What we know:
Layout (H helix, E strand, L loop, with lengths): L24 H32 L12 H21 L25 E2 L7 E2 L2 H9 L15 H4 L10 H17 L6
Antiparallel strand pairs: 1-2
Amino acid sequence: MKGFLYHPAEWGSGPSLCGFSERSPADSVFQVRAFLSLAIVALLWVAGASALRAAQEPVGREPADFDSELEQARGRGALLFQIHCAACHGLEGHGDGPLARDLKTAPADLTELSRPRSDDSGTLDFPSARLEAVIDGREELRGHGTREMPIWGLTFQEPGRDGDQEELVRRKIDDLLEYLRTIQEPLE
């Protein structure tokens, strides 16, 4: 017996491993590709699970602990951000989440959304309407580029809930926008 490894010219002759017939080079290539595909899926699953675990760890107080309605909205928005956005945009919104490197287009740095007003007043403009449309995603936006970001307007709906869910979706997006306002970095 020569052993288990044969030169390709000898395939088809000699003993087989575990009773299976000898493998052709095409079978070996298929097995390597199958193994690599499974390894990639496993790595993506681990990265996604890690991001989800990190996103589910609350930062600060629970939304119900806040005093004003605005603070409650920001708290709910922070929780939505951790669950739905941090995997790509990062826990602090800088576009550096664990899944960011796997995307074709780098996620936006959400801490730099506010821009100075054109009236030289020194105040910043927060693009609420534009962000609401981008987050919702159910309408095609000109100039937004490819649509790698999920359509949160559908995701924010609650399965099995009867009736119109527009109010629920709008509230979740508004809460998320209120949170995004809090993480804006001042311009230098």
